[in-house]
Amino acid sequence: MKKPEHPNIIADQDIKDSFSVESWEKKHFDDQRMHRATYNRIFLITSGSGEAIIDNSSYPIAGDQLLLVAKGQLFTFSADTVLTGHAICFGDCFWERAPQSANNCKAVLFNNASDNQQIPLNNDDLQELSPLFEILHTEFTKAPYINKLDAMAAYLKIIMIKIANINASLSKGYDSYDNQLYRQFLELVSRQYQNTHEVAEFAKQMGISTRKLTELCNRCAGKGAKDIINGQLISEAKRSLQFSAKPVKEIAYHLNFSTPEQFSHFFKKNTMVSPHQYRSHFVHIGM
Predict the structure, then answer these.
(1) Is residue 161 part of a domain?
(2) Which of 103, 132, 166 is the last residue before a domain boundary?
(3) How many angstroms separate the first and last alpha carbons of the chain?
(4) Contact call for residues 78 and 51 (beta carbons, < 8 A)
(5) The last residue of a domain, from among 144, 166, 188
(6) In a domain, 145, yes or no
(7) Can you tell me the distance from the alpha carbon of 160 to that of 119, in angstroms, rounded to the nearest whole number?
(8) Pfam families, from UniProt (predicted)?
(9) Could you write out the DSSP letters of every residue in 258-269?
């Protein structure tokens, strides 16, 4: 039986065809409860103010920027937020319609979303992206026609590739062999972090040595493979502690720790507080 969400969390409603595009003009946000994303989101913000809160981080909102939210993340906007721009929402089943050639771009942008949550845009970037979002929105609002979903997926592919090119972390050659391997690693971690925490196991699946994988991650991300795995585990643990009523013991086993004590030691080593202290902090501030 599925456990209910924390009372301050609202879950995504089902979206027809797992895809939607909205155009916003000075949009206000009346509900500040955290929103659990079951779809990926791309926000193109042409003007605005306020703050986005994604998982445990805050991002000031201004014009000329992108915000990316990956499925599984928790997000909301502050009460004073006003946004003008576009919002794309898409599920994995819709993305499967996009040509395979764009998969690498999506993997880097969304499998390690915390590194790409907010992307600033210069004027040229904005002038290139805005018409694409507008065309996609126009296409979305048209009456149904044969292959409409495939047409929208093709536009989404173009947008994803453009964002990947803009993203500073990808501009150093995201099609290089090293970056392809790095994306493969991120994909594996996002799917298997509940089953294994070992760098050696991921390296074996990729057909490379543990040392090669660690060097690869240091070149592509500036941190080691173990740091990336641990970051995924800590992010998921924080979400569960803050926004669910699951006992620490259940969270520990869900994340494949042998004992609750092992999980608590891992969590405190990486955050400087125990799981109970972390949860208690948010209970006391009413979140």
Answers:
(1) yes
(2) 166
(3) 25
(4) yes
(5) 166
(6) yes
(7) 13
(8) HTH_18
(9) SSHHHHHHHHHH
Does the residue 143 lie in any domain? yes
Amino acid making up residue 256: N
* pLDDT tops 60 at residue 285: no
Q: Which of 36, 18, 10, 9 is nearest to 236 (CA)?
A: 36
Q: What is the pLDDT of residue 99?
A: 64
CA–CA distance, 98 with 160 (Å, rounded to integer): 10
Domain count, the chain: 2
Predicted pLDDT at 266:
95
* Contact call for residues 40 and 98 (beta carbons, < 8 A): no
**Are residue 156 and residue 212 in the same domain, yes or no?**
no
- Which amino acid, residue 180? Q
193-219 tens-digit pLDDT:
889 999 999 999 999 999 999 998 888
- CB-based contacts of 216, cutoff 8 Å, min separation 6: 178, 181, 182, 185, 208, 225
What are the b/e assignments for 94-117, b being 16+ CB within 10 Å? Answer: bbebbeeebbbbbbbbbbbbebbb
3 falls within a domain = no
Look up the CATH number of the domain holding residue 35.
2.60.120.280
- The answer to whether the pTM exceeds 0.85 is no
Same domain, 148 and 63: yes
Distance CA 239, CA 3 (A): 14
Question: Based on the domain organization, do 25 and 158 belong to the same domain?
Answer: yes
Q: In one letter, which amino acid is 156?
A: L
Structure tokens that stand for 217 in this block: 């991650």
HEC string for 139-188: HHHCCCCCCHHHHHHHHHHHHHHHHHHHCCCCCCCCCCHHHHHHHHHHHH
pLDDT at 198: 94
